[in-house]
Amino acid sequence: MLSYSRSMSAAACCLAVAVTVGCSSTPSQPVASSTTASTTAPAPEYDLTGVPGTVLDSEDFGERSAELSDTGATLYRFVYESTSGVDNSPTAVSGVAAVPAGTPPEGGWPIVVYGHGTTGVQADCGPTLYPDLLGYQFVVQDFTALGYVTVLPDYQGLGTGGGTHPYLEPRTAGNNMIDAARAAHTALPDVSTRWAAVGLSQGGQAAWAANELAASYGQGLDLVGSVSLSPPTDLTPLVRSAEDGTLTRPQKELMPYLLYGAQHVDPAIDPKDYSGSVAEANNELLLTCQGGDTEGKERAVQAMAPDEFAADTTESEQRLFDVVGRYTLPQVRTEVPMFVAYGAKDDVVLPQWTADGVEKACALGDSVVAQEQPEQGHDVSDEAAMQFLAAVFAGQSVPSTC
């Protein structure tokens, strides 16, 4: 069986939470496109229909991506309609879809929607703006080679420039995953309704949320399972660590993104109320993605005090706890199995946080295949996940570890 460990090793810095754009020494540059937006360009206007999954715009992506053009797959960059998890308003989200070469199986090509890890929070942080998808070309290549229509959504606020990115708000990301599958099924020929949600880190949270939302929001599709690798299930311990000064270095890099996203969920959140002198002075730098000054960002993070992100007042502290408390997974019982893997040495999403989420999901009656990997950090092995995915697509029973 082909593993996507190649994807994870080649794009490891793009998959983990709190990364900067460009995983090589020479970051890729955005492709020029009529549907491409950046933080310095006006957001494109789309006539939203109110029908999630509607394709609003599309273009040939193969001509723009030498990294993917030799796969034989047919490649599209498209903009589709989705729904904000914050206020239920219609939104425009961009993504890339790859259709395998050859004859589709009976019933059409199955779909894998892959949720990417943190790339940033601004409009130019969408992987589909870059020829190499910020390293995710390997994910697309590998899943397409396995015979899946592979879809990589940017998430709301990334890529299109439309709206804002409510970072780690799970309902939005879950809706974006579901609607990416819906858009692929309705707009592309010979595509099945059967699909799986897969992701690592931020994308692992998105895949978990998509599984929870499938019963209420995913009508017309047939979700077979989800794979969540190193998913952030509960961010209240992160805020608690910010208060008591025990954040790890990568968690300090994550906090400006979290505060940015929280402000767009609750405008009463002011990131300045949680930022020390270093974070406030370097806020613009810390939020960059495309072509960012990675060395300057690292110097800023290293200069931060242990309590750099402690709230100014108890009222501000409680306000942030209230917002991130709404992000906590699980929220409802799922109807299809999920695979969850996490590393015992993870210093971004601490293993106990994920273990607690799994325990709560089991208590709800979810079918969970959970795996703690003793020697792994945030970047976990995928072998068992791929076996799980093959089994659920084949309609096989997958014993729960609950």
From TrEMBL:
InterPro entries in the record: AB_hydrolase_fold (IPR029058), Lipase_secreted (IPR005152)
Keywords: Signal
Originating species: Rhodococcus navarretei
Disordered as annotated region, ranges: 27-49
Range of residues in the leader sequence: 1-18
Comp. bias regions, Low complexity: 27-44
Listed name of the protein: Lipase family protein
One Pfam family hit: LIP
